[in-house]
User: Fold this.
Amino acid sequence: MQLKELFDEEMDTGEFMKERETSGSPSREEIPENKQTTLGLYVNAVQAYEMWKSDPDRIKIIDVRTPEEYGFIGHPDTAWNIPLAFVTYTRKNGITEYGPMWNTEFIDEIKNIAGKDDPLLVMCRSGDRSAMAVNKLAAAGYNNAYTITDGFEGDKVDDPGSVFHGKRMRNGWKNSAPWIYTIDPEKIILREHIEADRVMKNCTVKQVVQYTGNNAIHQSCPNGGTHDVQA
Assistant:
């Protein structure tokens, strides 16, 4: 599945999740292929919450959704928002289009808050992006990363007679465990932060020279050159 498709429609986990709310973790054979990971560590939202409560100082919740999703749809109180990808917008011929942009600093941002043996509970909307994120973590040497198979919003209600038909209300963290809208600025990573940090890595003198009309920040570097960071 292409990354853009994940923003449009993350697939449902399946009927087995109804029976897995409090039982043991699902096996690899029960997980849809698009939600499987190389580590094979799976929990649903209920299990993830119980797991986190058992050791909240050590276990970290990593929310890989976009900052927009994290802020406006809600998130677990202690979750770090480290996006797998950002959304970009363009305006052409009177039409606004959007598309994904990979977060190239994803692993580096994880390294700032977690060691490779630390337990990580990785979450997205409904389990696709979190699986992709876990696979990236595994490739980088992280061996204790769980994907939350029903994500934050959960799977869709499949009942044409219900007013909730098509809504993500079957499971997921939002329907199973405490969550908030309030944002802790220390726990959210924005695209602007990534771009600014990338520039700063090449500069030993960190000085903002000026703001320009297009909100570009000119960073002065010791080699006499400047780098533009779109704000």
